Amino acid sequence: MLILVCLVMLYPVLFVFGRSVMTDLDRAAHPFAIWPTAWDISGYKYVFSSGSYIVNAYAITILRTIAGTFCNMLFTAALAFVLSNRDYPLRGAFTMLIAFTMWFGGGLIPMFLLVKSLGLYNHFAVLILPGLISAWNMLILRNFFMQIPQGVIESAKMDGASELVIFLRIILPLSTAALATISLFYAVGHWNSWFDAMIYVNDRDLWPVQVFLREIIHNTNLNDMIRSDAVVEVNPPAQSVIMATIVVTTLPILCVYPFLQRYFVKGITVGSIKG
């Protein structure tokens, strides 16, 4: 049964990779094949050509994922630590206010007007700042921090440790599983995100790679991926470019996930216990 499940999971991955290196004739003759009879990497050459937007978009996506995940974890962990303190009088009120945002929001138009009024429109920071703290992830971290024995924190206070020292040298080292899990959530979210860039960014040089992937899938127009002043010898088949773009946008997450998988179940299980 598990082997069957694994095959079901692996087939789409191998299918996309195989189609990205097939010729048009091979794809037409073998519509369900996952391994090419003749290799054609023109799609990858086109994606990573010197005049392609994808190379710059790939850099934007990597920078967004690294910087965004770091900022997300910094502010989410800090807020979760404050709200996990049982002696903080406003802990319950702030927790309810933050949880309220999980069910009710201001809407797209007010958010767009707010972004423009703050000067974030068409700026790289708009990809990070509006979603700086996720209420769901913060609550998971808060509940995880509350499972740490209070005796450890009280003994540190008796030794003269400040709140910052407790946070950096006690709370964070004891929360590796939860931090790795939430980091994975944020990183995957940043890597796959495209809607915010499509709404708030008009400059194609600031588009992440997922926006270009959406453009070529919906429009099947390869010219949208190449700068107007670039010279391309031959345009490869559109299907090759689409599949190649899917592969290069998915591969980094597939490579990172196995190293964080061992923290995943533990972080979610412990962090979901009610405090």
From TrEMBL:
Pfam families linked: BPD_transp_1
SUPFAM superfamilies (UniProt xref): MetI-like
CDD domains associated with the record: TM_PBP2
Subcellular location as annotated: Cell membrane
Keywords: Cell membrane, Membrane, Transmembrane, Transmembrane helix, Transport
Domain of life where this protein originates: Bacteria
Domain annotation ABC transmembrane type-1: ranges: 58-260
Topological relation to the membrane, as annotated: Multi-pass membrane protein
Keyword Transport tagged: yes
Membrane listed as a keyword: yes
Classification via PROSITE patterns: ABC_TM1
Parts of the chain that traverse the membrane: 57-82, 94-115, 121-145, 166-188, 241-260
InterPro entries: MetI-like, MetI-like_sf
Family: Belongs to the binding-protein-dependent transport system permease family.
PANTHER family: ABC TRANSPORTER PERMEASE PROTEIN MG189-RELATED-RELATED, POLYGALACTURONAN_RHAMNOGALACTURONAN TRANSPORT SYSTEM PERMEASE PROTEIN YTCP
Protein name: ABC transporter permease subunit
Organism field: Paenibacillus glycinis
